[in-house]
Amino acid sequence: xxxxxxxxxxxxxxxxxxxxxxxxxxxxxxxxxxxxxxxxxxxxxxxxxxxxxxxxxxxxxxxxxxxxxxxxxxxxxxxxxxxxxxxxxxxxxxxxxxxxxxxxxxxxxxxxxxxxxxxxxxxxxxxxxxxxxxxxxxxxxxxxxxxxxxxxxxxxxxxxxxxxxxxxxxxxxxxxxxxxxxxxxxxxxxxxxxxxxxxxxxxxxxxxxxxxxxxxxxxxxxxxxxxxxxxxxxxxxxxxxxxxxxxxxxxxxxxxxxxxxx
Length: 262
Ligand SMILES: NC(=O)c1ccc[n+]([C@@H]2O[C@H](COP(=O)([O-])OP(=O)(O)OC[C@H]3O[C@@H](n4cnc5c(N)ncnc54)[C@H](OP(=O)(O)O)[C@@H]3O)[C@@H](O)[C@H]2O)c1
Description:
By secondary structure, the protein is of the alpha/beta class. 38% of the residues lie in helices and 19% in strands. The protein has helices at residues 26-29, 45-57, 72-79, 108-122, 138-144, 147-156, 170-177, 195-204, 224-233, 247-260, and strands at 9-10, 17-18, 21-24, 62-64, 88-93, 95-98, 101-104, 129-133, 163-166, 182-186, 207-211, 237-243. The chain binds NADP nicotinamide-adenine-dinucleotide phosphate.
């Protein structure tokens, strides 16, 4: 175990306890159609094991993944060091990334089948959370599609422990807070548009996961600690998900998070 170790905190009212820094897994599964500053190659299996073991040793228990992240779920299923109950695995549903393109399905039947497939890929019998992987049409999806009912059903069956949305709008984030357990929203030093969602989540005691807190890496040259200080100063934040495949960056991020936490 390293000197640094993340202290767990509640993910809203889900009963789940998460490290304030979570590990994003886009870059272990997909290289196409991503918004990172530099091109990259997928890490080898050995590198993924090293990264996941390091994350665990630094006290990170929160892993964010999705079917749309290429082979990320399958690799986690094979390579995530045990035991299972030490990890909080968050996946998503609704976005399908195939042949370099995304398409979306938020129907009831698709949602059930896709989550069952995620369980197979991840080689587990439950997911800690499944988020609607929104295409931006948040409110319509929440009101008109079958996905919310399907996630409720999956929760009743014990296959998922909580549900939420990775939202892209204030209206969608707010709507989700009344129907789902948590929201994954974007915030960083140059983007504050979704603040009303954070404020409402804090009032309601709901969990918020922050995505793109480093603006997909574009903010790193302005100081990771400054970026994290900003994110952790926002109301309602449970954890910040940062994607990295670089062990040095992971260590640096844990140190920065420790320094930045209020
Ligand atoms: N649900 C959604 O719709 C959605 C959308 C986007 C993202 N996400 C989730 O949120 C996670 C994070 O989002 P993101 O990957 O777009 O953005 P991010 O976490 O803001 O940035 C990731 C980028 O920052 C770089 N980075 C990380 N730590 C660094 C450090 N200490 N110094 C320099 N560069 C550093 C990484 O490169 P290195 O690998 O070189 O460290 C990577 O290219 C994703 O992995 C995913 O799990 C979800």
